Amino acid sequence: MKRRALLGALSGVAVAGCLRLSSGEEDRTGRMSVRTSSTATATKTAAETDPQTTTGRVGELEYPSGLSDDGIGRFLFAFHTQALSQASFHTKWSKVDADNSRMEWQKEYRVDDGTAYGSWTRAHLGTPCEIYRDSTDGFWREDVGDHYTYGNDRQDYAVRELTWKLELEPLLRAAAWNKPTLVTEEYPAVWRVESAGIADETAVPDHYGGTLQDLSVTAEVDENAIIRSVEATYRVDQPDGDTRAFLSRFELDSLGQVSVSEPAWVATAADEVPTVSATFTDDRRFVKLTIDSGARIEPESVVYVPEENGPNAWEHHLDDPIEPGVEVYLYRDGSPDAFGSLNLVRGAKPTGVTPSRFAPGSRVLARRRSSEYFDPVAVE
Q1: Looking at residue 343, which CATH number applies to its domain?
Q2: Which CA distances in Å does 58 have to 18, 29, 50, 53, 177?
Q3: Inter-helix orientation angle 76-83/165-174, to 10°
Q4: What mean pLDDT is reported for the chain?
Q5: This prediction's pTM
Q6: Which residues have CB under 8 Å from 19's CB, separation 6+?
Q7: Are 142 and 300 in contact (CB under 8 A)?
Q8: Would the pLDDT of 58 be above 90?
Q9: Which domain holds residue 147?
C-alpha cells in the first residue's frame, strides 16, 4: 500500500509520454527534424513522407542508435547526450525513498543550447533553490528564510548532468532488457523498453554503494536516440547492511520549444559568492580559513579538505555558520575511529592538541548538499 500511495503522490511528475520534436530544419511535410549525425535515417524518412499525410511513413522504421532487438545498448546515454548537445528542451525528475516516504530529489531544468535554468527543493532541508548555468559558470541561490545564500558550482553546463546522468546511466547499464516495442509511429517514432532482470547488480544509481536488487525499469526512446522517459523501482543493499528502496522518474519534453535568459539575481550571486583565503599554521597541522568577502557559509553545509591522491576527504558538518571576517581553524581528528573527521574552532587556534599534518598542496572546499560554494581554494 505504501508503494501505491507514493506512486499517487508522484503523479505531478509522472511520465507524460512522448511529444513531437520541433527543433532543427523544417521538412516539406511541415514537421521538424533534429540535425544530428545519429538521426540521418530518421530525418530522411520523415522528409520523404507524402506531404498530404501526417502519420504515414516510407519504408520500415529502424531502431535508433543505442537500441536493438536485445533492448538498450551500453552507449544509449552517450547517443542521447550527443543528440541534445545543441537542442533546447525541458527535463524534470524525482526520486523517493520508499521506505521513509521521503523525497530524495525533485529537480527541473529548462535548457537552451548552452544555457540552463534549474529549480529544486533542497533535500531534507525543504528550502527552494535556483541555478543558472552557462558554458563558464553555475551560479545558484537558496532561500534560507530571511535571506539568500549564494554559490558558484564549478560543474558548468553539461547535457549529461541536465538529464540526470547520476541516476539514468547506471539504471540503463544495470538492467537486462526485453525487445523494444514501437508505441508511436508518427515522427518522432518512440519505442518502449522494459527490463527483464538485472544484468549488473553493481551499477547502483546516485551516490550509494552496495548491490542492486528488485530492479524494474521502463524507458521510452525516440528515433533520434533521445531518452524521453524512464520509470524505475529498485532496492539497494548497502555494505553496512542497511537496505533502501527507491522510486525514480524522469521526463524530457518540449524539444525545440524552450528559451532561457539570465535571471536578474545572477549579478547579485556573482558578488555574494564567498571569497575565501586559507593558510597553513604550525607546520601544516592547522588550516586557518577566512571568508574575506561575500556571503557566509550556512549551517547544514560541509567544509572539507580532500585526501591527497585519494577518493575521500576530511569533512566538518556545520551546526553554526562561518561568518565573513571570522577566522576559523581546521584540523584533523587523530582518533582511530574518526577517519575523515575535520574539527573546526572559531576565533583562535586551539591549544593542547597536536593533530596530524595536512598534505602539501591541500585545498579547501565547501558545499551545500550537492552544490559547491566556490572553486577549490589552495592552502598557502
Answers
A1: 2.60.40
A2: 21, 13, 8, 11, 28
A3: 140
A4: 85
A5: 0.80
A6: 228, 253, 254, 255
A7: no
A8: no
A9: 2-253
